[in-house]
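Title: Request for sanity check on ABC transporter ATP-binding protein prediction

Description:
We are preparing a figure and want to confirm that the structure record we downloaded matches what your pipeline produces today. Could someone re-run it with the sequence below and paste the raw C-alpha cells into this thread? We only need the C-alpha cell string, no images.
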Amino acid sequence: MARIRIKNLYKKFAKTTAVDHINISCLGRRVYGFVGTLRLRENNYTSNDTGLEVPTSRKVFLDNKLMNNIP
C-alpha cells in the first residue's frame, strides 16, 4: 500500500506564516480530512498539497522516495 508523507510543510505570505512546519503521513486507499477554520483548510493545506500554491518549504515522499523535484 502506497504511503505519502509531507514533512515540514511551511508557507509564508509576506510577514504572515500560514502553515508552520506541519508533518502529514497518509496511507493509500484511505480518506483523510483536516480540522480547523474553513479558510485554513481550503486555502493553505489543499493548495500546497495539490500544487496550486507553491509552499515556502517542504519535503514530499512517496513510499520513502523523495519526490520534491519530480514534476
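Thanks, this matches our download. The helical segments are 38-50.
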